From TrEMBL:
Heme binds at residue 394. This is Cytochrome P450. It is found in: Endoplasmic reticulum membrane; Microsome membrane. PANTHER family: CYTOCHROME P450 4C3-RELATED, CYTOCHROME P450 FAMILY 4. Pfam families: p450. It comes from Gryllus longicercus. Coiled coil: none annotated.
C-alpha cells in the first residue's frame, strides 16, 4: 500500500479517533469530579486517614453486590428462627451445656486456666446439632479433622488478609496457606454435602401425613435448620450448592460469636462476685436447688437479671465489634448540614459506639443495671447495637440470647467464678473481637454439686 493511501486512511479516521479520545477524557473527568466531591464531603467527617487513590481500601475491601440474592434468601430463612423452632433448640443448649459443665469440672481446682477453647468447642457442638442436625462431639473429641478444619479456616482467613500478595487467588492456590485452606474446605464441604444428602434422603422417605419431627418408627426427632432449608428447596428455589452456602454461613456466624460472648461474660463475672450472687438468687427463685439445671424456653425468657448481665457484657465486649456498609445514594444527615456521598464505605464501630460517655457514663465499668427497662427506654435504640440494626441485622439474635442465657445460667449454678489476679485480656479484632491471650479464670465448684 502506498504511503499516501495510508495517510489518507489515517486522516479519514481522525474524527472517530478524536471523538473516542474525548469520550474517554470526559469519562475520566467525571470520575475525577465524583472522587473530588467524595473527598470534599468525607473530609468534613472525623475519621481514619485515607491514602490518595486507595483511600481506606487497604483496611477494608468489600465486594460489590446490590443485595438481590441476600434479600430473597433472608426472606426465605426468617421463618426458621420462629419461636417454635427455637423451642426445639433449647434441649440442645441443655445437653451440650451439661457436657460443658462436665469438662469444666475437671478444671475446677481453683487454678487459673483459659476457658476460651472450651467455649469454642461447646458452641461448635451446639451449632452443628441445631443447624445440621449432627453431633460432632467437639467437646469430647477436639482432635477430629472436622473440628481442626473449623478452627484452622478462621486463622487462615486472618493470615491471608495480612499477606496482600496472597489476595490473588492464583498465587494463594499454590501457597502453603492456600493448600491448607483447600484441605480445610474439602473437609468442611465434604461433611456438609454428606449431611445434606442424608437429610434429603430422609425427607424423601417422609410418608403422607408424617411430619418432620417424627422418625419412621414414630419416635420424636429434632428438626434441624437444614431440614427447613431442604423443605424450602423442594420447589427448586435452592440448589444443593445454595443450601450448603447457607448452612456454612450459619455455622460460621453462629459459633465463634457466641463463644466470644460466653467467655467475655465469664471474665466479667470473675471480677464481679456480687453479680454472680444476684444471678444465682434469680435462678434459685425459679429452679429446684437440689437438681441439675434444666431450662425451658419459657423459663429462660423469665430470667431478666441474667439478660441484663449478658446485655452489659455484649456492650463492653461486642463480639461483632464493627460492620461496613456501602452508601448507594447521597445521604444527607438531618442533624447537620453534612452529606455522606454515594459510593462511600461506612465503617460502623460498635465497640466505640458502646463507649459513648454521654450515653453510658463511666463506660468502662460493668454495670448490668444500665439495662433495667427504665434506663433502656430513655436511650436511643441505635446507641446499643451488638446485633446491628436494620434489615441486615443478626438473624440469629434470639437464638444467641437463649444459648447465652442457658450456658451462663449453668455456669453460675455449678461454679463460683474467680478472677486470675495475673491476667488482663489483650483485645484483638480478628473476624470477631477476641482476647489474644485467651480468657483466664479460676473455678470453684459450688457445694450443691459436692453433696450430689
Ligand atoms: C452473641 C452472638 C452473636 C452476635 C454478637 C452476632 C452479631 C451479628 C451482627 C452484628 C450481624 C450483622 C453483621 C453485618 O451487619 O454485617 C450478624 C449477622 C448475622 N448473624 Fe449473628 N451474631 C451472633 C450470633 C449468631 C447466631 C447464633 C447465628 C445463627 C444461628 C447468627 C447468624 C447470623 C447471620 C446468618 C447473619 C447475617 C444476616 C444477614 O446478612 O441477613 N448470629 N450477627
Amino acid at each position: 500500500m502506498e504511503i499516501s493511501t495510508v495517510l489518507l486512511r489515517v486522516i479519514g479516521s481522525l474524527p472517530w479517533l478524536i471523538s473516542s479520545l474525548l469520550g474517554i477524557v470526559e469519562a475520566l473527568w467525571r470520575m475525577v469530579l465524583a472522587r473530588i466531591r467524595l473527598i470534599y464531603h468525607a473530609a468534613k467527617f472525623p475519621g481514619l486517614f485515607a491514602w490518595p487513590i486507595v483511600g481506606n481500601w487497604l483496611l477494608l475491601w468489600n465486594g460489590n453486590t446490590r443485595g438481590e440474592k441476600w434479600h430473597s434468601r433472608r426472606k426465605m430463612l426468617t421463618p426458621a428462627f420462629h419461636f417454635k423452632i427455637l423451642d426445639q433448640f433449647v434441649p440442645v443448649f441443655n445437653s451440650n451445656g451439661e457436657e460443658f459443665i462436665r469438662q469444666l469440672r475437671k478444671r475446677a481446682d481453683g487454678r487459673a486456666f483459659d476457658i476460651w477453647p472450651l467455649c469454642k468447642l461447646l458452641t461448635l457442638d451446639v451449632i452443628c446439632e441445631t443447624i445440621m442436625g449432627v453431633r460432632v462431639n467437639a467437646q469430647t473429641n477436639s482432635n477430629s479433622p472436622y473440628v481442626k478444619a473449623v478452627n484452622d479456616i478462621s486463622t487462615i482467613i486472618i493470615e491471608r488478609a495480612l499477606r496482600p500478595w496472597e489476595l490473588s487467588s492464583f498465587i494463594f492456590r499454590f501457597s502453603k496457606l492456600g493448600r491448607r485452606h483447600q484441605q480445610c474446605l474439602d473437609i468442611l464441604h465434604g461433611t456438609t454435602d454428606k449431611v445434606i444428602q442424608e437429610r434429603k434422603a430422609e425427607l424423601d422417605k417422609l410418608s403422607e401425613g408424617r411430619t418432620l419431627d417424627v422418625d419412621e418408627l414414630g419416635r420424636r426427632r429434632r428438626v434441624a435448620f437444614l431440614d427447613l432449608l431442604l423443605l424450602i428447596a423442594r420447589d427448586g428455589s435452592l440448589s444443593d450448592a445454595d443450601i450448603r452456602e447457607e448452612v456454612d454461613t450459619f455455622m460460621f456466624e453462629g459459633h465463634d460469636t457466641t463463644a466470644a460472648a460466653i467467655s467475655f461474660t465469664v471474665f466479667l463475672l470473675s471480677r464481679h462476685p456480687a453479680v454472680q450472687e444476684k444471678i444465682l438468687e434469680e435462678l434459685e427463685a425459679t429452679f429446684d436447688s437440689s437438681k441439675p439445671l434444666e431450662t425451658s424456653i419459657q423459663e429462660l425468657s423469665e430470667l431478666k437479671y441474667l439478660e441484663m448481665v449478658i446485655k452489659e457484657s455484649l456492650r463492653i465486649y461486642p463480639p461483632v465489634c464493627a460492620v461496613a456498609r456501602q452508601i448507594n445514594s447521597d445521604l444527607p444527615l438531618e442533624s447537620s448540614n453534612l452529606t455522606i456521598p454515594a459510593g462511600t464505605t461506612l465503617f460502623l464501630n460498635f465497640y466505640l459506639l458502646h463507649r459513648d460517655p454521654d450515653v453510658f457514663p463511666d463506660c468502662e465499668s460493668f454495670d448490668p443495671e444500665r439495662f433495667i427497662p427504665e434506663q433502656t427506654v430513655r436511650r436511643n435504640p441505635f446507641s446499643y447495637l451488638p446485633f446491628s440494626a436494620g434489615s441486615r441485622n443478626c438473624i440469629g439474635q434470639r437464638f444467641a440470647m437463649l444459648e447465652l442465657k442457658s450456658i451462663v445460667a449453668k455456669l453460675v449454678w455449678n461454679f463460683r467464678i474467680l478472677p486470675d489476679p495475673n491476667y488482663d485480656p489483650e483485645l484483638v479484632w480478628e473476624l470477631i473481637l477476641k482476647s489474644q491471650n485467651g480468657i483466664s479464670v479460676r473455678l470453684e465448684e459450688r457445694s450443691r454439686n459436692k453433696t450430689n
